[in-house]
Design a protein that fits this description.
Layout lengths: L2 H25 L7 H8 L3 H7 L3 H26 L3 H15 L1 H10 L3 H19 L5 H24 L6 H16 L5
Helix pairs in contact: 1-2, 1-4, 1-6, 4-5, 4-7, 5-9, 7-8, 8-9
Length: about 190
């Protein structure tokens, strides 16, 4: 396949992903989206769709995988460059979420797939906690992480729902305050 065909395929896939996110935002669920609707929204024909996918769920899976990869890369980059400590690290992550609002709003709030949420939490927050160097007793680790992960995701999800009504610094302070009892003695 030549370069032009590769670019065309990438562009077509991106157009399908964008169209799918738009439809998910409107409808709330992948099961409510047909190939015909997706092609119409992307302004591409069905043969182009079937050249890359068998069903809309495959477009969703690809979009989810892409944002997870980008998020992992972003966290790794920020962790390597971080100079401002844990609060600045979390603030940077929150700004990343806000900058990618449409994708996170659809995937974490509007059409929230529990499997994607779980993968997002595991990937992003566990990396964040590793950066913060949270150490726990082995028998307590799964409970503490579960509390921190799910509570933090709840706060961030509500922040997205509120259209970022509280500034990033306020959410960082809130997360640290709410989780203080769980992590006060655990953060190095």
């Amino acid at each position: 396949m030549n370069v032009k065909e590769n670019q065309r395929a990438r562009l077509s896939k991106k157009m399908f992903q964008t169209a799918l996110l738009d439809l998910l935002e409107e409808r709330g669920g992948i099961e409510k989206i047909s190939v015909r609707e997706l092609c119409g929204r992307a302004e591409l024909n069905r043969s182009t769709f079937y050249a890359h996918y068998a069903e809309p769920r495959e477009v969703l899976a690809e979009a989810e995988e892409e944002i997870l990869t980008k998020t992992e890369d972003y966290i790794r980059k920020v962790g390597a460059q971080a100079q401002g400590g844990g609060k600045e690290f979390i603030a940077s992550f929150l700004r990343y979420i806000r900058e990618n609002d449409h994708t996170f709003r659809v995937l974490l709030v509007t059409a929230a797939d529990p499997a994607f949420k779980n993968r997002f939490v595991q990937l992003s927050f566990l990396q964040l906690f590793q950066y913060l160097q949270i150490e726990t007793a082995a028998e307590q680790q799964q409970y503490i992480y579960s509390y921190l992960l799910n509570g933090s995701l709840g706060v961030i999800t509500q922040w997205i729902r509120s259209d970022y009504a509280i500034p990033v610094s306020g959410i960082v302070d809130l997360l640290f305050t709410l989780n203080a009892s769980a992590i006060a003695s655990l953060v190095k």
